[in-house]
Amino acid sequence: MLQLFLSVERQTTRLALLGAVLMLIVSVALGFYQVMTRFVFDAPSTWSEVISRSAMIWCVFLGAAAGFRGGFMMSVEVIYKLIPGRHLVWLEAFIAVCCAVVLVVLITFGTAMMLRVQSQMLSGLEVSIAWAYAAMPVGASFALIAVVARLLAQATGQETIGPVVEEDLPASAAAAVAGEGAGPLTASPSRDAVAPGKPNDRSERP
User: Fold this and answer.
1) Can you say how many angstroms the Cα of residue 40 is from the centroid of all Cα atoms in its chain?
2) Residue 194 dihedral angles phi and psi, to the nearest 5°
3) C-alpha 8: how far from its chain's center?
4) Do 46 and 182 meet the contact criterion of CB atoms below 8 Å apart?
5) With contact defined as beta carbons under 8 Å apart, do 73 and 67 qualify?
6) Closest CA to 71 of 195, 184, 159
7) Mean pLDDT of all residues belonging to the chain
8) H/E/C letters for each residue in 56-124?
9) Out of 32, 58, 104, 142, which residue is the most buried by the measure of CB atoms under 10 Å away?
10) Chain centre to alpha carbon of residue 74
11) Nearest alpha carbon to residue 141 among 30, 20, 16
12) What pLDDT, on the 0 to 100 scale, is given for residue 164?
């Protein structure tokens, strides 16, 4: 059952990441088009800026899922050094609960806000502004699945516990986040990352 959930999560996170990349391409392309029409052809476009801004909003919220899943969010590494290795899983659980609370709030109030503004139209377009606000609940839903999957993978020993150090991250990590790997998503262990149940012994360090 756990492996089925992790497999489904890999596909949802991959879908969110691909959507974020697509929205980034759309935003950059329309931003370039906006500059060209304004400063080169002296005929500013009335619709490209609105779509570019909305696409960037979608890019941020969809890309958050991959960030949560890979453990790429900012972390206070000194806390991991102070807590014994066998208790780090509880720290990760606390972090996951805090993230989940924030994401549930985004889903709840983002949905309410989306429904509240559905009668308003985007400037220059006959499209409801609710499509832009929908990025909050949709992106937060993908991110919530990713947070739960990361915690379960760490609690069962399938992934190491601890912050991801950029210099130790292998080149294949990006492909793993995108779901291209066949196995569970794993991160390269950092200097302070430990497996569940193993003490964080620093006596052998220079």
Assistant:
1) 37
2) -135, 160
3) 16
4) no
5) yes
6) 159
7) 80
8) HHHHHHHHHHHHHHHCCCCCCHHHHHHCCHHHHHHHHHHHHHHHHHHHHHHHHHHHHHHHHCCCCECCC
9) 142
10) 12
11) 16
12) 61
Percent of the chain with pLDDT over 70: 77
Amino acid symbol at 122: L
Rg over alpha carbons for the chain, rounded to the nearest Å, is 20
Over the stretch 48-81, which tens digit does the pLDDT of each residue have?
888 999 999 999 999 999 999 988 877 677 777 7
pLDDT tens across 143-163, in order? 999 999 999 998 888 877 766
Tokens of 22: 């697509």
What DSSP state is assigned to residue 178? T
Residue 77: phi, psi to the nearest 5? -65, -25
Best CA proximity match to 179, nearest among 70, 95, 55, 83: 70
Q: Which residues contact 166 (CB under 8 A, 6 or more apart)?
A: none
